C-alpha cells in the first residue's frame, strides 16, 4: 500500500514525471512524419528498456503463471494502447495542443462510463457531475472549430484517443492482477510496438526518409515522456496516495500549453484556455470519487 505521507523524494519524482509527460504533445508536433510512424517509433524505442526492466524484476516468473484470459486481456490492453497513440498523434497534427491534450485527458471519465456500461459499476454523484462539467468544457473547446473540418477532425481524434486510453485502463484492471507494474508494461509495450509496426506495413506508411530532426524528436518522445515520465509517475505511485498522483497528472495539459509557447510559437486562445480549464475541473471532480481513482491510478 502506498505510504500516505508525502515523501519528498516521491513528490520530486511526481513533479519530474508530470513535467516529462508535458513534453509529449510539443515533441509530437516537432516530429514531421506520419502519425503512425511517430507512434510506432515512440513505442519501438521505449519497449526494449521496459522489457529488460521487467525481466530484471522477475517479470518472467509472473508471466509463466498467466492463463489464457490474462493473455487475452493483455492483448486487448496492447491493442487499445496502440489505437490511443495512433489517434492522439493524429489529433495533434490537426488541432491545437491545448484542445488535444485537454480532450484526451478525459480518459478517467471514459473509464467510469465504460465501467458503468460493461461492468455494472454505477458511478457516484461526484463522477456524474464531473462528466457533465467536462462535457461542457469539451464543447467549449470544439464549437469554435465547427467551421474547420480539419481541426474538428483533430478534436474528434483526441476524443477517440481518450476513449481508447479508457479501454486500455479498463482491460488493464483485469490484466494486471498478479502482475507488477514492470511486468505489465514489459508485456504491453512490446506488443503495442509490434501492433503499430504492423499497422505501418498494412497501411504502407513510410518509416524512413523523414527529416533527421523528426527522428530526434521521436527519440526524445520515447526517452522523456515515455521512459522518464511514466516510470517516474509509477515510482511515485508506489509511495504517494493515488489521489495525489491522479490529480497531479491533470497538470499535463497546463505544462504542454506552456511548453508549446516557446517551442512551437503556439499561444492558446482565450476560449481554449477556458474550455481546457473546465474539462480539467470536470476530471478533477470525477477523480475525487474513490471508485474512479481505483480504475485509473494503477495504469499511469
Q: Which descriptors would you attach to this protein?
A:
78% helix; 15 helices; mainly alpha; 300 residues
Give the helix/strand class.
Answer: mainly alpha
Order of helices and strands: HHHHHHHHHHHHHHH
The proportion of residues forming helix, as a percent range, comes to over 70%
Count of extended strands: 0
Query: Number of helical segments?
Result: 15
Q: What is the domain total for the residues?
A: 1
Query: Between the first and last Cα atoms, what is the distance in angstroms?
Result: 16 Å
Q: How big a fraction of the residues is strand?
A: under 5%
Mean pLDDT: 89
Taken from the alpha-carbon principal axes, the silhouette is globular
Largest sheet: none
Using only C-alpha atoms, the radius of gyration works out to 18 Å
Enumerate the spans where pLDDT stays under 50 for 5 or more consecutive residues.
Answer: none
What is the multimeric organization of the chains shown?
single chain
Describe the structure.
The protein is an all-alpha fold and 300 residues long. It has one domain (8-299). Helix content is 78%, strand content 0%. It has 15 helices and no strands. The chain has helices spanning 8-22, 24-30, 35-56, 59-64, 68-92, 97-104, 107-118, 125-142, 149-175, 181-202, 212-237, 242-248, 251-264, 270-287, 290-296. Helix 1 packs across helix 13 and helix 6 packs parallel to helix 9. It starts with 7 loop residues before the first helix and ends with a helix. The mean pLDDT is 89.
Amino acid at each position: 500500500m502506498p505510504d500516505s505521507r508525502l515523501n519528498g523524494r516521491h513528490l520530486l519524482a511526481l513533479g519530474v514525471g508530470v513535467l516529462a509527460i508535458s513534453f509529449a504533445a510539443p515533441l509530437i508536433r516537432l516530429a514531421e512524419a506520419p502519425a503512425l510512424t511517430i507512434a510506432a517509433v515512440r513505442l519501438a524505442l521505449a519497449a526494449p528498456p521496459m522489457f529488460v526492466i521487467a525481466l530484471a524484476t522477475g517479470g518472467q516468473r509472473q508471466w509463466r503463471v498467466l492463463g489464457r484470459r490474462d493473455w487475452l486481456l493483455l492483448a486487448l490492453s496492447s491493442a487499445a494502447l496502440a489505437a490511443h497513440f495512433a489517434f492522439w498523434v493524429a489529433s495533434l497534427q490537426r488541432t491545437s495542443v491545448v484542445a488535444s491534450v485537454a480532450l484526451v485527458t478525459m480518459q478517467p471519465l471514459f473509464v467510469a462510463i465504460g465501467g458503468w456500461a460493461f461492468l455494472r459499476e454505477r458511478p457516484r454523484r461526484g463522477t456524474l457531475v464531473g462528466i457533465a462539467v467536462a462535457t461542457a468544457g469539451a464543447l467549449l473547446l470544439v464549437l469554435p472549430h465547427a467551421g474547420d473540418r480539419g481541426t474538428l477532425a483533430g478534436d474528434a481524434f483526441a476524443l477517440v484517443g481518450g476513449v481508447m486510453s479508457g479501454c486500455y485502463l479498463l482491460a488493464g484492471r483485469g490484466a494486471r492482477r498478479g502482475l507488477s507494474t514492470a511486468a505489465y508494461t514489459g508485456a504491453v509495450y512490446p506488443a503495442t510496438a509490434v501492433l503499430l509496426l504492423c499497422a505501418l506495413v498494412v497501411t504502407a506508411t513510410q518509416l524512413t526518409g523523414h527529416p533527421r530532426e523528426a527522428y530526434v524528436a521521436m527519440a526524445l518522445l520515447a526517452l522523456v515522456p515515455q521512459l522518464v515520465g511514466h516510470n517516474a509517475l509509477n515510482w511515485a505511485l508506489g509511495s504517494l496516495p493515488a489521489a495525489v498522483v491522479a490529480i497531479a497528472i491533470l497538470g499535463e495539459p497546463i505544462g504542454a500549453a506552456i511548453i508549446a509557447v516557446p517551442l512551437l510559437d503556439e499561444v492558446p486562445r482565450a476560449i481554449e484556455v477556458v474550455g481546457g480549464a473546465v474539462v480539467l475541473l470536470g476530471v478533477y471532480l470525477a477523480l475525487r470519487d474513490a471508485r474512479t481513482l481505483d480504475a485509473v491510478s494503477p495504469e499511469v
